[in-house]
Design brief:
Blueprint: H1 7-30, H2 32-35, H3 42-66, H4 72-99, H5 109-130, H6 135-159, H7 167-179
Helix pairs in contact: 1-3, 1-6, 3-4, 3-6, 4-5, 5-6
């Protein structure tokens, strides 16, 4: 697999990223005060920023992958470094909210996921810089573009008020439902 053979993937990825960024801006514009206003929740603002970062990462890799003869390894490396800097900055901005108990430690999970993506992308980008025709590193970068889409979509879903559908939450809810005392028959009508 060479960068040229991934041309169609990069083209499709750039189109998808552009569409998702547009939809993200529409979602934010529907209730901007909740996400960007002076009374906005820190976690909502950070989710919006992380969503935009994930989509922008995919867009940059996709677009630069379309430039004939351009080194996609360098693009992946630079965008990964910018992504890592974003995660560090976002974490620094959220720490006061964590100390004030306005956010929970679990709310940092999306940043941890992005950090993992960017570190792996950095390693794959550096590997592709060293070995230009390394199919494994190029494939890793392509897979990470897809992962960025999935992370961004999940964060966007939370931004518009959708309930998180993660396995841990589902299991906790099931366990809590089993522990709840059962109402005797006919008790709910009294």
């Amino acid at each position: 697999m060479t960068t040229a053979s991934a041309h169609e993937f990069f083209s499709t990825s750039a189109e998808v990223a552009g569409a998702l960024i547009g939809l993200l801006f529409v979602a934010i514009s529907v209730s901007p005060e909740r996400i960007l206003g002076p009374d906005a929740s820190e976690i909502h603002s950070m989710r919006a920023a992380s969503t935009l970062t994930a989509f922008t990462n995919a867009l940059a890799v996709g677009l630069f992958g379309l430039v004939p003869g351009f080194d996609i390894g360098a693009t992946a490396t630079v965008v990964a470094i910018l992504g890592i800097l974003f995660v560090v900055g976002a974490t620094t901005r959220l720490l006061p909210a964590l100390r004030a108990k306005r956010v929970r430690p679990i709310d940092f999970g999306f940043l941890l996921g992005l950090l993992v993506v960017f570190v792996v992308q950095l390693l794959a980008g550096l590997g592709l810089d060293r070995r230009e025709n390394d199919a494994g590193d190029l494939q890793t970068i392509c897979v990470l573009v897809i992962v960025c889409f999935l992370i961004g979509i999940a964060r966007a879903w939370e931004l518009v008020g959708g309930q998180r559908a993660d396995l841990s939450r589902l299991l906790i809810e099931r366990l809590q439902a089993r522990r709840a005392p059962h109402e005797p028959d006919g008790a709910e009508g009294e």
